[in-house]
Amino acid sequence: MKVFEKLLEIQKKNNSLLCIGLDPQLEKLPEGIQRNTFGILEFNKLIIENTKKFVCAYKLNFAFYEQFGSEGFDLLEKTVELIPNEIVKIADGKRGDIGSTSQAYAKSIFQHFGFDCATLNPLMGVDSLTPFFEFDDKLNFVLACTSNPGASDFQKLRIDNRFFYELIIEKFTDNFTKEQLGFVVGATNELEFQSIREKVVDNFLLVPGIGTQGGNLARILEINRNRNIIINVSRDIIFASKEKNFIEKVIEKTLYYRNQLQVV
Amino acid sequence: MKVFEKLLEIQKKNNSLLCIGLDPQLEKLPEGIQRNTFGILEFNKLIIENTKKFVCAYKLNFAFYEQFGSEGFDLLEKTVELIPNEIVKIADGKRGDIGSTSQAYAKSIFQHFGFDCATLNPLMGVDSLTPFFEFDDKLNFVLACTSNPGASDFQKLRIDNRFFYELIIEKFTDNFTKEQLGFVVGATNELEFQSIREKVVDNFLLVPGIGTQGGNLARILEINRNRNIIINVSRDIIFASKEKNFIEKVIEKTLYYRNQLQVV
């Protein structure tokens, strides 16, 4: 089954557009959890076990695993194994390189780690990302307009009456179908979200920037009008509490978001 | 000592502007080398031992290690340890993400693995890469104009009478000094190389695209006119032969390039 269909199916089954970002940071771990990669594995396991009925996907940002080197990649392998098959696994690495190198990245993400989706950086052009799309049952999310202030530096530049992020979207939608191609659009950019949503009616949008980063969820959902979307929340859920009973707060926060993110 | 100075020092000592890219691929390993990560470690060790007097740097592209997961990161850790301290170690990962995430990537590259330099993707703007520059004795190479055909898709777009790669260069040189900031410019773009070299007179340029990718080394050196530069060659050196005595060919190829890349 294509990931595109798997995603629609689990969104319906769990009645949720919510993705939880599993981005561990040692100094933010709650009481009672060891401050090392063993502790993080236990932490990730508790979160997955207690939230898996309320999400459509988990997104793992590679940076937070790479900071521990080979131990971190071991943790990444083990965390991926804990995620039930029916739930979509997103590798958030924002990769992109010349073709032969992207091929190695794609193998790493889809074959070695077994992810369903990858986030990709389009700066080096369509050919640089093609090896990811050659895994044709997978779904890739290309960065369009990100949630950080620096998105204004380049992504929002105007070029011949269009924004740079619009050129990115055009170039990639010209080359790949909606089953293979989604875009990352930060929730902090409401205007840009609106113009992108009008442009790519059927493609999935992966939306970070809700929670700690301050994006307005209600407004994004209103603009989106039930089109294909995944809303990611990381820190605001997983670090909801530093107390020993943190998992209760994690469930509470998960339900808080999920209640706003039901499919119907 | 700042990496900027370390680089000038080793270029002088080894009389070489050559960087060798250690980008292992199982199917290209020579006869007599095991086709697994143990074999690659032996392969890398042989290459480093036999070329370390003729190079200023080694560049390790993370993709070729990540494809083996935690075993690959273990291999990366062990390979970095084999490189003598006086030689510059470049982490080629083309990273870039929102600030808190880039901080984790920077920690991974500079603290965990102990690299001197990183290659960075500027698409998400200056704030997205600032955490790398906070390690202020390190030298970061920001992608300006890459060696693949897709560089035309976005990097060579014209915006208000300038090329997009020129905007990237201006934005980053406005924010960081030459001691901290270099750029990646593919050897396959002679015209762009010329315009960039005129713009950033003192910053280091890291130049891939020589060898297998077809860039013209003599022409690049002529345009460069003895300014700060590192020329990277990967496949054309490390996979010079599939025979059992491959290391002789590796040395031969290394000397072939190094003889064109002397400092004086």
Structural class, from helix and strand content of chain A? alpha/beta
Specify Rg of chain A, calculated over alpha carbons: 18 Å
Strand content of chain A: 15-25%
The CATH architecture of chain A can be given as Alpha-Beta Barrel
Largest sheet of chain A: 8 strands, parallel, barrel
Q: What letter string, H or E per element, gives the SSE order of chain A?
A: HEHEHHEHEHEEEHEHEHEHH
Greatest interface and its residue counts? A-B, 57 and 57 residues
Relevant terms:
homodimer, about 45% helix, alpha/beta, globular, about 260 residues, about 15% strand, eight-stranded parallel beta barrel, TIM Barrel, two-stranded antiparallel ribbon
Describe this structure in words.
The structure is a homodimer of 264-residue chains. Chain A is α/β, with parallel strands linked by helices and 264 residues long. Chain A has a single domain, classed as Aldolase class I (TIM Barrel). Chain A contains 11 helices and 10 strands. Chain A has helices at 3-13, 37-51, 63-66, 69-82, 99-112, 126-133, 164-175, 190-199, 217-224, 235-238, 246-260; strands at 18-21, 57-61, 88-95, 117-120, 139-145, 158-159, 162-163, 181-185, 205-207, 229-233. An 8-stranded parallel beta barrel of chain A has the order 1-2-3-4-5-8-9-10, surrounded by 6 helices. A two-stranded antiparallel sheet of chain A has the order 6-7. In chain A, strand 3 (88-95), helix 5 and strand 4 form a beta-alpha-beta unit. In chain A, helix 2 runs parallel beside helix 4 (69-82), helix 2 (37-51) packs across helix 11 (246-260) and helix 8 (190-199) runs parallel beside helix 9. Chain A is globular, with a radius of gyration of 18 Å. Chain A starts with a helix and ends with a helix. The model of chain A has no long low-confidence stretch (mean pLDDT 96). At the A-B interface, helix 3, helix 4, helix 5, helix 6 and strand 6 of A face helix 3, helix 4, helix 5, helix 6 and strand 6 of B.
